[in-house]
Amino acid sequence: MKGGIFCVDEEENNQFASVFNKVQPVRGFEDVLTQIYNAIYSNQLKTGDRLPSEREMASMFEVSRTTIREAIRVLEAEQVVEVKRGVNGGISIVEPKPDQLGRSLETLLHFRGATFIELAEFRTDFEGKTAFLAAERATHLETHQIILIAKKFIELTTDINTPWEQLIDLDLAMHEAVAYASKNQIHIAIMLGIQSVLRKTALSLESGNDQKFREQQAIELMEIAQAIQNRDANTAKLKMAEHVEGNITSKMNQSLTDLK
């Protein structure tokens, strides 16, 4: 097995003894989940590593194969593992996809009763700091990519028939590129996680059909891109915060209009 301490070789099964323990029968599959998650969080299991077979894990945890299957089904649903059938199949650790993170975060925000204003307050500081870090850490290639996105946005804005949804996707691509350029894994994960929520919010903006609003968006994105290109961290932070606040103001004005 490459890439980690875990393998399915009979001779190395004893390596699992220091990681996996016998579980409590009353909450068997939950204990299995907890131990596997702990192994991932402690880097004993990494992306691409293969777990032992159901039979081997049942023996290690001292539970039934049904309990193991239940735990694996949960892990598969959460996109933590990938299960492949057949001779060359097996259970492998995978990195959760952004859309899964987005759905989880969106559900959490819904049940916590988070408001648009609360999300907006968070975004202003968060994305401003992300742009600040990007200006300090972006590679030449990343900077070039950010500039190209801003230029593409400007190009599409000149055509009044460009669907608002297409501009939204470009705007989100810009925010994502800035997050990756920040080199901060927490900023990247959160940005990817809130993408679906931001997209839904942007789609609801009636101002998206206003040409002046679109042109202002294009100007703001280019200002952010140029600040990052010039390594001007403070300006990048300021311009990103202003860009986010502008969208917030537009959404709030629309909400007030709807109430009248």
Automatic annotation (TrEMBL):
Origin species: Bacillus salipaludis
Native organism taxonomy: Bacteria, Bacillati, Bacillota, Bacilli, Bacillales
Entry GO MF terms: DNA binding; DNA-binding transcription factor activity
Protein name as annotated: FadR family transcriptional regulator
Domain of life: Bacteria
Record-annotated HTH gntR-type domain positions: 26-96
Pfam families: FCD (PF07729), GntR (PF00392)
Keywords: DNA-binding, Transcription, Transcription regulation
